[in-house]
Write a structure and sequence with these properties.
By secondary structure, the chain is mainly α. The chain has 9 helices and 4 strands; from the N terminus they run βαααααααββαβα. The two termini are 32 Å apart.
Length: 184
């Protein structure tokens, strides 16, 4: 069974909104959470648990917390979702670029959360917004293995990027001196 974080988000965009609207058409939030109470109100979520508690009395899902880490998706869930509205999903799959009516792959994860098809766990990864102010701290975190996984998103000028890249690459080289099998 996939291991995941069943936490609610307060961030929205048209794609996320379409995902949530689709989920709300197929699931009743209160029933979902009552059925898998221990998964939605898992103490290991830490500060994310407060969001679930705060939104508990809402009738519908307002959103889901999307952390920037690998996400376990099951092909069987994808097929089940596709089968709910094949015309809609076929139409979306032909869009070369994101359209205001599109959904994302996150809807598969949300479906798994709503069906209880996950094992609750706090994320084992750490997302970083890397800037000229914190890039040394981020590199230190990589060197010290503060997390099993990291996701790096830079917020800097092209000139700053060169300096930041050099420091991050140096940290990664120290931690992973040898190429892995698929890089050779």
């Amino acid at each position: 069974m996939p291991v995941d974080v069943g936490a609610i988000s307060n961030y929205a965009s048209f794609v996320k909104a379409n995902n949530v609207l689709f989920i709300n058409r197929h699931f009743k939030k209160r029933e979902v959470q009552e059925k898998n109470w221990d998964k939605w109100y898992f103490s290991g979520y830490g500060e994310l648990l407060d969001r679930n508690r705060g939104l508990h009395y809402w009738n519908n899902f307002a959103g889901f917390h999307d952390y920037h880490m690998p996400v376990p998706l099951k092909k069987s869930t994808m097929q089940k979702i596709w089968d709910t509205d094949p015309i809609l999903f076929d139409k979306m799959s032909h869009n070369q670029f994101r359209d205001a009516s599109d959904m994302s792959q996150c809807v598969v994860r949300y479906w798994q959360l709503c069906t209880g098809d996950f094992v609750p766990q706090k994320s084992i990864g750490k997302p970083y917004l890397v800037t000229k102010e914190n890039y040394r701290e981020v590199a230190d975190g990589i060197r010290k293995h503060v997390s099993q996984m990291v996701c790096l998103t830079e917020d800097c000028t092209p000139e700053e990027f060169s300096v930041i890249k050099r420091e991050i690459n140096s940290a990664l080289q120290e931690v992973f001196p040898d190429k892995c099998s698929f890089e050779k």
